[in-house]
């Protein structure tokens, strides 16, 4: 079975690494659907948010389900 989500998105190969100090109100570890959703809502509430991910964005739960 294939994932409509993974098949329909344009994959970004990489994001820049953080090379300087940054100031945030919230740091979210993990750019899965939950981390991205939390970051979205927190930023809409006015928080300065950083989301950190070591692998691919938005794929872990989907990959695990369809593997």
Secondary-structure map:
Elements: H1 4-8, E1 26-29, H2 33-44, E2 49-52, H3 60-66
Parallel strand pairs: 1-2
Structure, explained:
With 67 residues, this protein is an alpha+beta fold. The protein has a domain at 24-67. 36% of the residues lie in helices and 12% in strands. The chain is built from three helices and two strands, in the order H-E-H-E-H. The protein has helices spanning 4-8, 33-44, 60-66, and strands at residues 26-29, 49-52. The protein has a two-stranded parallel sheet with strand order 1-2. Strand 1 (26-29), helix 2 (33-44) and strand 2 (49-52) form a beta-alpha-beta unit. The longest helix has 12 residues, at 33-44. The radius of gyration is 14 Å and the shape is globular. The N and C termini lie close together (9 Å). The model has no long low-confidence stretch (mean pLDDT 80).
Summarize this entry quickly.
With 67 residues, this protein is α+β, with helices and mostly antiparallel strands. Helices cover 36% and strands 12% of the residues. It has a two-stranded parallel sheet with strand order 1-2.
């Amino acid at each position: 079975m294939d994932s409509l989500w993974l098949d329909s998105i344009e994959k970004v190969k990489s994001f820049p690494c953080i090379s300087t100090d940054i100031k945030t109100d919230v740091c979210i570890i993990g750019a899965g659907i939950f981390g991205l959703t939390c970051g979205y809502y927190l930023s809409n509430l006015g928080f300065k948010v950083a989301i950190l991910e070591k692998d691919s964005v938005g794929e872990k739960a989907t990959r695990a389900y369809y593997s």
